[in-house]
Design brief:
This protein has 161 residues and is an alpha/beta fold. The chain contains five helices and five strands. It binds adenosine-5'-diphosphate (ADP).
Protein backbone atom coordinates (compact mmCIF):
# COMPACT_ATOMS: atom_id res chain seq x y z
CA UNK A 1 0.00 0.00 0.00
CA UNK A 2 1.54 3.32 -1.08
CA UNK A 3 0.17 5.87 1.33
CA UNK A 4 0.93 9.60 1.40
CA UNK A 5 -0.16 12.39 3.64
CA UNK A 6 -1.17 15.79 2.25
CA UNK A 7 -0.67 18.22 5.14
CA UNK A 8 -1.82 21.83 5.24
CA UNK A 9 -4.00 24.42 6.89
CA UNK A 10 -6.79 24.22 4.30
CA UNK A 11 -8.48 27.33 5.68
CA UNK A 12 -10.42 26.74 3.47
CA UNK A 13 -9.78 23.82 1.09
CA UNK A 14 -9.66 25.20 -2.48
CA UNK A 15 -9.82 23.91 -6.06
CA UNK A 16 -6.00 24.01 -6.06
CA UNK A 17 -5.83 21.62 -3.09
CA UNK A 18 -8.50 19.36 -4.59
CA UNK A 19 -6.58 19.09 -7.85
CA UNK A 20 -3.33 18.11 -6.10
CA UNK A 21 -5.11 15.35 -4.15
CA UNK A 22 -6.90 13.96 -7.22
CA UNK A 23 -3.69 13.91 -9.26
CA UNK A 24 -1.88 12.37 -6.29
CA UNK A 25 -4.20 9.37 -6.57
CA UNK A 26 -2.30 8.37 -9.72
CA UNK A 27 0.85 8.10 -7.59
CA UNK A 28 -0.50 6.74 -4.30
CA UNK A 29 -3.06 4.13 -3.28
CA UNK A 30 -4.27 6.21 -0.36
CA UNK A 31 -3.92 9.87 0.60
CA UNK A 32 -4.61 11.24 4.05
CA UNK A 33 -5.46 14.94 3.86
CA UNK A 34 -4.37 16.16 7.27
CA UNK A 35 -4.99 19.49 8.91
CA UNK A 36 -2.14 20.69 11.08
CA UNK A 37 -3.47 22.21 14.29
CA UNK A 38 -0.31 23.77 15.67
CA UNK A 39 0.12 26.44 13.01
CA UNK A 40 0.56 29.98 14.22
CA UNK A 41 -1.71 31.09 11.37
CA UNK A 42 -5.03 32.59 12.44
CA UNK A 43 -7.89 30.58 10.95
CA UNK A 44 -11.50 31.41 10.20
CA UNK A 45 -12.78 27.84 9.81
CA UNK A 46 -12.67 25.54 12.82
CA UNK A 47 -10.69 22.33 12.41
CA UNK A 48 -13.94 20.35 12.75
CA UNK A 49 -15.58 22.33 9.94
CA UNK A 50 -12.51 22.01 7.73
CA UNK A 51 -12.54 18.23 8.24
CA UNK A 52 -16.27 18.15 7.42
CA UNK A 53 -15.80 20.25 4.26
CA UNK A 54 -12.94 18.11 2.91
CA UNK A 55 -14.81 14.86 3.73
CA UNK A 56 -17.80 16.20 1.83
CA UNK A 57 -15.59 17.02 -1.19
CA UNK A 58 -14.27 13.45 -1.33
CA UNK A 59 -17.25 11.59 0.07
CA UNK A 60 -17.42 9.17 -2.87
CA UNK A 61 -13.70 8.33 -2.79
CA UNK A 62 -12.64 5.76 -0.20
CA UNK A 63 -8.94 6.23 -1.06
CA UNK A 64 -8.95 9.73 0.46
CA UNK A 65 -9.10 10.11 4.25
CA UNK A 66 -9.27 13.32 6.25
CA UNK A 67 -7.82 13.85 9.74
CA UNK A 68 -6.25 16.51 11.90
CA UNK A 69 -2.94 16.28 13.72
CA UNK A 70 -0.70 18.21 16.05
CA UNK A 71 3.03 18.01 16.44
CA UNK A 72 5.56 17.28 13.75
CA UNK A 73 4.27 16.37 10.31
CA UNK A 74 6.89 13.63 9.92
CA UNK A 75 5.77 12.06 13.21
CA UNK A 76 2.20 11.99 11.95
CA UNK A 77 3.39 10.43 8.67
CA UNK A 78 5.28 7.72 10.58
CA UNK A 79 2.29 7.02 12.81
CA UNK A 80 0.15 6.54 9.69
CA UNK A 81 2.83 4.43 7.96
CA UNK A 82 2.98 6.92 5.11
CA UNK A 83 6.30 7.06 3.26
CA UNK A 84 5.66 10.32 1.45
CA UNK A 85 4.47 13.83 2.09
CA UNK A 86 2.55 15.28 -0.86
CA UNK A 87 2.69 19.03 -1.43
CA UNK A 88 1.63 21.41 -4.19
CA UNK A 89 3.88 24.04 -5.74
CA UNK A 90 2.52 27.25 -7.22
CA UNK A 91 5.56 29.50 -7.50
CA UNK A 92 9.30 29.59 -7.02
CA UNK A 93 8.63 31.11 -3.59
CA UNK A 94 6.64 27.97 -2.70
CA UNK A 95 9.57 25.89 -3.92
CA UNK A 96 12.15 27.66 -1.77
CA UNK A 97 9.94 27.36 1.30
CA UNK A 98 9.13 23.71 0.65
CA UNK A 99 12.69 22.76 -0.24
CA UNK A 100 14.04 23.58 3.23
CA UNK A 101 11.21 21.80 5.02
CA UNK A 102 11.47 18.72 2.80
CA UNK A 103 15.26 18.50 3.24
CA UNK A 104 14.97 18.83 7.01
CA UNK A 105 12.19 16.24 7.10
CA UNK A 106 14.34 13.85 5.08
CA UNK A 107 17.27 14.42 7.41
CA UNK A 108 15.12 13.61 10.44
CA UNK A 109 13.36 10.57 8.97
CA UNK A 110 13.29 8.51 5.81
CA UNK A 111 10.17 10.29 4.65
CA UNK A 112 10.35 11.85 1.21
CA UNK A 113 8.35 14.76 -0.12
CA UNK A 114 6.67 14.62 -3.50
CA UNK A 115 5.67 17.84 -5.24
CA UNK A 116 3.09 18.38 -7.91
CA UNK A 117 3.04 21.63 -9.84
CA UNK A 118 -0.24 23.44 -9.78
CA UNK A 119 -2.29 23.69 -12.95
CA UNK A 120 -1.75 27.17 -14.44
CA UNK A 121 -5.33 28.20 -13.76
CA UNK A 122 -4.93 27.42 -10.05
CA UNK A 123 -1.67 29.29 -9.54
CA UNK A 124 -3.29 32.44 -8.09
CA UNK A 125 -5.70 30.56 -5.83
CA UNK A 126 -4.67 30.79 -2.19
CA UNK A 127 -6.66 30.19 0.98
CA UNK A 128 -5.59 33.65 2.14
CA UNK A 129 -7.21 35.37 -0.84
CA UNK A 130 -10.34 33.24 -0.49
CA UNK A 131 -10.59 34.23 3.19
CA UNK A 132 -10.22 37.92 2.30
CA UNK A 133 -13.00 37.70 -0.29
CA UNK A 134 -15.20 35.90 2.23
CA UNK A 135 -14.60 38.45 4.95
CA UNK A 136 -15.89 41.08 2.51
CA UNK A 137 -18.92 38.96 1.61
CA UNK A 138 -17.68 38.19 -1.92
CA UNK A 139 -18.51 35.11 -3.97
CA UNK A 140 -15.79 32.48 -3.58
CA UNK A 141 -17.61 29.57 -5.23
CA UNK A 142 -15.33 29.42 -8.27
CA UNK A 143 -12.29 28.93 -6.00
CA UNK A 144 -13.83 26.08 -4.02
CA UNK A 145 -14.49 22.48 -5.07
CA UNK A 146 -17.75 22.03 -7.02
CA UNK A 147 -20.86 21.63 -4.90
CA UNK A 148 -19.33 23.21 -1.78
CA UNK A 149 -21.34 26.02 -0.21
CA UNK A 150 -18.89 27.67 2.11
CA UNK A 151 -21.63 29.03 4.37
CA UNK A 152 -22.42 25.44 5.42
CA UNK A 153 -19.06 25.35 7.18
CA UNK A 154 -18.84 28.64 9.02
CA UNK A 155 -19.91 29.14 12.60
CA UNK A 156 -22.24 31.92 13.70
CA UNK A 157 -20.40 35.19 14.16
CA UNK A 158 -17.37 33.96 12.23
CA UNK A 159 -16.88 37.25 10.32
CA UNK A 160 -17.16 39.46 13.34
CA UNK A 161 -14.14 37.96 15.18
P1 LIG B 1 0.24 25.45 4.51
O1 LIG B 1 -0.35 26.24 5.61
O2 LIG B 1 0.95 24.22 4.97
O3 LIG B 1 1.01 26.22 3.46
P2 LIG B 1 -2.00 25.33 2.73
O4 LIG B 1 -3.33 24.90 3.20
O5 LIG B 1 -1.84 26.76 2.36
O6 LIG B 1 -1.01 24.85 3.82
O7 LIG B 1 -1.54 24.46 1.49
C1 LIG B 1 -1.35 23.06 1.59
C2 LIG B 1 -0.57 22.57 0.37
O8 LIG B 1 -1.31 22.87 -0.82
C3 LIG B 1 0.78 23.27 0.17
O9 LIG B 1 1.67 22.32 -0.38
C4 LIG B 1 0.49 24.35 -0.82
O10 LIG B 1 1.61 24.72 -1.57
C5 LIG B 1 -0.53 23.64 -1.70
N1 LIG B 1 -1.41 24.57 -2.40
C6 LIG B 1 -2.07 25.62 -1.89
N2 LIG B 1 -2.78 26.26 -2.84
C7 LIG B 1 -2.53 25.59 -4.00
C8 LIG B 1 -2.93 25.76 -5.36
N3 LIG B 1 -3.72 26.79 -5.74
N4 LIG B 1 -2.49 24.88 -6.28
C9 LIG B 1 -1.67 23.86 -5.91
N5 LIG B 1 -1.23 23.65 -4.65
C10 LIG B 1 -1.66 24.50 -3.71
Amino acid sequence: MRRAIFPGSFDPFTVGHEDIVLRGLDLFDEIIVCIGTNSSKRSIFTVENRIKMIRDVFKSNSRILVESYSGLTVEFAKEKEAKCILRGLRTSADFEYERAIAQVNKKMTEIDSVFLLTKPEHTPVTSTIVRDILLHNGDVSSFLPAGINVLDYVDDGWNTK
